Amino acid sequence: MNRLYIGLDVHKASTSVALAFSGNEEPEHYGKAPSDLNGFLRVLRRIEKKHLLTKEQIRLCYEAGPTGFVLARRLRHLNYDCMVTAPSLIPIRSGDRVKTDRRDARKLAGLLRAGELTAVHIPDAADEIIRDVCRARTDAVSEQSRCRQQLGALLLRNGYHYTGTCNWTEEHMRYLRELVLPDPAQKMVLEEYLQRLDASVQQVARIDLQMTQLLEHWPRRPMVEALQSFRGFRQTAAMILVSELGDFCRFDHPRQLMAYVGLVPSEDSSGGRRRQGSITKCGNSHARWILIEVAHHYQLPPKVSKELSKRQENISREVKALSWRAQNRLSSRYHHLRCRGLHPNKIKTAVARELLAFVWELAQMMR
User: Fold this and answer.
1) 247 and 360 share a domain?
2) Nearest residue to 127 (alpha-carbon basis) of 232, 247, 35, 36
3) Which of 75, 146, 319, 349 could form a disulfide with 82 if both were Cys (CB 3.0 to 4.6 A apart)?
4) Phi-psi bin for 46: left (phi > 0), alpha (psi -120 to 50), beta?
């Protein structure tokens, strides 16, 4: 059957289109198409009509990038075979020093025909909505931390030191609001920082409320609730990890999931020599970050705290047993690596890698 392979170099305003037919002919540049969905579909139907092809005879691909997965989801909804490929896994010739939109589109069409492209997972629209909200919360918390650091630096430069037990409590905020600076201009700067801080706190609270409301109707809610039975996972951390990784069961083995998140060590081995380096840091950096943050909780001895016990209400006995087994294994691993004198960051990374295997096992139980 004659097939047509279409490579797309997608940008914000336009998309370069290249065609590669079955055989050994060089891919040809077709032209540019609008990047909006309706405009691109008109160009695609024009290609179908010109070459007398059906949807089953056409395959399309483009690189994952800032334009997201809207185009791929729309094409798949219309029963087109569309693949989004990983840019870091596209073969590159060492002597190729010319890069243009036309050449990129032709290259994608040729590699798609040769079967040398690696597809990335296209998340569901619901998962992507939750993921955007979770990432917005992370940005809001980062802005809040930055504002606190800047406010603290202002007071430190002017010789003011808070002597209370804990910063950013109600007592500390009362101290900041009642603080009198020698110059009215400095007092104005302090008030501006306090206004920014109040706004960031309210923003985080609004996003948290939105996350709670979205969770009520999210198809992956059972996985989020089960994950909260693990130590270190509350609603925010569980929603972040599940929204970033989506369907855990698409990985046949936990090692594949570890490699996807970039928690496996890099390696440069040849002959009888084996040398391992730092972790690859490939794949989803946001999921890797939250896993390492959660791994910090396993430095303490195994314990079902009051908060954890409350989160484990209405959770099955099998999931509770898995959570307890994970606590014992990861706490023991944390203690063993600490006794070996490893750097704390390396310990947390190793524990996060093993924690991901328990999360994968949980996903298998929730199928």
Assistant:
1) yes
2) 247
3) 75
4) alpha
In angstroms, the CA 222 to CA 95 distance is: 51
Q: Return contacts of 134-140, CB within 8 angstroms, 24+ apart.
A: 134/211, 134/236, 134/239, 134/240, 134/243, 134/244, 135/286, 136/207, 137/204, 137/207, 137/208, 137/211, 137/236, 138/240, 138/286, 140/200, 140/203, 140/204, 140/207
Show which of 215, 231, 246 is a domain's final residue. 215
* Number of independent structural domains in the chain: 3
pLDDT in tens, 143-165: 999 999 999 999 999 989 898 88
Mean pLDDT score across all residues of the chain: 93
In a domain, 120, yes or no: no
What is the C-alpha separation between 195 and 191, in angstroms, rounded?
6
Write the pLDDT tens digit of every residue in 264-297: 998 888 888 888 889 998 888 999 999 999 999 9
pTM score? 0.90
pLDDT in tens, 51-71: 999 999 999 999 999 999 999
Tokens 């484990």 correspond to 312
C-alpha 287/C-alpha 251 separation (Å) is 15
Domain assignment present for 32: yes
Looking at 194, 215, 236, which one is the last position of a domain? 215
Specify whether 225 is located in the same domain as 204: no
| Same domain membership, residue 208 and residue 226 | no
User: Residue 69 and residue 121: Cα distance in Å, rounded?
Assistant: 10
Sheet hosting strand 81-85, strand order edge to edge: 28-34, 14-21, 4-10, 58-63, 81-85
Same domain? For 198 and 228 the reply is no
Tokens of 334: 């944390």
Instruction: Show the beta-strand stretches assigned E in 64-104.
Output: 81-85
Determine the length of the chain. 367
pLDDT score of 1: 63
DSSP 272-322: TB--EEEE---S-HHHHHHHHHHHGGGGSPP---HHHHHHTTT--HHHHHH
